[in-house]
Amino acid sequence: MKTIYSKLFLSLLLTFLFSTISVAQYKIQGPGISPSKDTVYAGIKYEYKVVNFPNTRSLVWQTLWGLLDGREGESVKITWDNVPQGTIMVTGFNGTSNVTMEAKVKISGIKPVPEPEPEKPSAPEFISKLGPLLFFSNVENTRTYQWTLPRGCKTTDGLSGTFQRKDISNNNVWLLIETPLQLYYEGDIKVQAISNKNSLLSETTKYKLKVLDISYLNIIEVPEAIYSDDKQKTYTIAVDNIAGAKYKWNISNGIIVSGQNTNRITVRPDSPYPYYKIDLDFSINETTSSKSINIKAISNEYGLFGPEDVYDKPVEFYVKYPQSSPIYQIAWLINQHFYSLNPSSKFVLDPSNLNIGENILTVHVQLSDRYIKEYNKIIIKHSNNENKIYSITYDNNTKVLKVSQDQTCNLDSKLSIRNKSTIQIYNQQGVLVLSKAHLNTNSFESNLNNLKQGIYFVIVTDGKNKTEQKIVIR
Question: Model pTM?
């Protein structure tokens, strides 16, 4: 009998232990149930479920202080009342018996409404750039702007880095800047508006500043002139070679022989013209600027022609100019003073009002395209040719200057060189290079081999008469 009771007791004990262990494996999980760290607020729907239960279809849910969204199954959603704690109860059949599980849920009341974030001002918008002047939109309800300039950039009154300023013109905010003195400069300018309500800064507006100062692109090779008569001769024009830059050349009245798209081109004249204009479009980092190079034309066919020595009688001058464009007007000037205006290429000069000595005759040829070509000629005014009592000659072979009495002058006006005459020689710049005074001979000779090649003016005076003569030393 004892043996039967012992076996029955052992069987019940094992059944109890098995049942206890099985129930301990079943759990209700979800927000607010330990060990969950999630905060549960009243009025908000949360999901809960049972884990490790063998027959989830048999589960039935109940709550205390909560509203169930469904009552059966492995999981449900519950909306909690505004109480400190709620209870969940779940009953189910595990295959051998009905099991009830229970869990406590901590409720933290009504979820607090967060304070609205302070309103930031709108970000300024870039409007335009006019040289060194930048324009941005004027954001309403802002007391100032915060600027950040890139390294090397500053305002015209010396501000750099980060600073605050707001200058308004025509309802736009402007900033006047200076960049380094160099060919190309690039950097980001950052600007933010500052609210006058809460001092908050707007989002940052970035403007990519690109400055190309073409004046710093050096011309490293250019001819002084182009001989327009020789259409086979070539000339080289070159500027600095900048890595990554683009070069686009154009020449008026000429042909680019080679070098297009490089920093160095070879050109030749195509038509006779008073000048040649070379235009360069220079680009770097999608920023373009233009540079022009003007080269004067030289032609043996064109110029101002007429006598170099004049006396009191009227003399004729004429000008020859390229016929590429119709003539518009011709102006004649004596010693830079206006003398005559007419469309004719010929001009009759009355020397009676000229000063004795050197004078400059200038002609301005204005073509229909408004280009003005200038020609100059030095003319020497002498005293009346009938009273010229000295003969002045120069021999380029012997380099000897001879001064003697002019036998063609009137007999009663003749004076001897030995009557203390003075001989002076001036160069084109008016500098005295040789002087011989108080000569007492009928003639005078002097070797001029120590003078450089060029044009000189010989003046002989005796106190009463004066004779001038231009000589050319070759």
Answer: 0.48
